[in-house]
């Protein structure tokens, strides 16, 4: 078992920012990540709302975060966290490779994508059905595709796919989109996008790979078949909090309840970014949370001396 002051879980924008601040304060910590530095940012085509970048691709943004870690001589432990539990005043974090005993945890594991749970969806996951247009869109270049969802992610990624193909069905179960007015107007005026509202997907079909969807108009109950090579799902997410053994820090939806300084009801357990109970889940907020948490962690460590 390794003993360390702080374990940072997740190297998305929140975790990376917290790590940089702690490094500059000479705090002893480990940064744990199971996938890629940058987290969900890697999945977005364009970031147009993080000042002062007027425009940067998600992958470039994620790479800039990685370069910032290198610049600050911060190593990432590429491990998957399996459990976080309390032991007296400390925490035990178990990964697939190591066990850490620490005084504080900064929990920034973000969210996991949800699926529709419709007929044959599971069969075609990664065989035409994906949650990441930027990762997989190019595989279906020039072919008809569908996007399902009504928020900014669905709208942004529809616009991204419109550069790759000239036929995209945007399917949403309500008549109104939740995303920003700017994106709504862009998809509405995009000649490659056919908007289907209020529609739901009932079934997915194909041989080895997805080739069609059966969709239903919720008002008329009329069914249609859409011939598509790919379906990109943006239908919400759930917080990655299953591994926390002390559930009192979670709200009814499983998000971590945090105070203004990123602390929780459990002393020493801090959280930030998309995994926390908040209105806006965006890069700017996650980065702010990481910075904010670092100062609270430093104060907490000082209080334990
Ligand atoms: C398609 C899409 C488009 C978006 N577009 C924008 C945009 O234009 N502008 C904007 O501001 N925001 C955008 N966002 C939102 C933005 O990406 C998130 O708000 C931000 O990434 C949250 O950062 P985070 O650090 O809280 O979590 P994340 O970025 O989710 O990072 C969490 C990290 O934890 C890791 N992890 C999870 N579980 C484990 C485990 N058990 N062990 C170890 N590591 C683990 C993950 O691999 C991940 O790297 C978009 C999101 C999506 C999905």
Walk me through what this model shows.
The mean pLDDT is 97. The protein has 305 residues and is an alpha/beta fold. Helix 1 (13-24) packs parallel to helix 2, helix 1 (13-24) crosses helix 6 (283-303) and helix 4 packs parallel to helix 5. The chain has two domains: 2-112 and 237-303, FAD/NAD(P)-binding domain (3-Layer(bba) Sandwich); 115-233, FAD/NAD(P)-binding domain (3-Layer(bba) Sandwich), CATH 3.50.50. The strands form five sheets. Strands 1, 2, 5, 6, 7, 8 and 19 form a seven-stranded mixed sheet that branches. The protein contains six helices and 19 strands. Helices cover 23% and strands 30% of the residues. Residues 9-15, 32-35, 39-41, 43-44, 47, 49-50, 80-81, 108-110, 153, 156-157, 240, 243, 273-274, 281-284, 286 line the site of flavin-adenine dinucleotide.
Task: Give the tags.
305 residues; alpha/beta; FAD/NAD(P)-binding domain; 2 domains; five-stranded parallel beta sheet; 23% helix; 30% strand; binds flavin-adenine dinucleotide
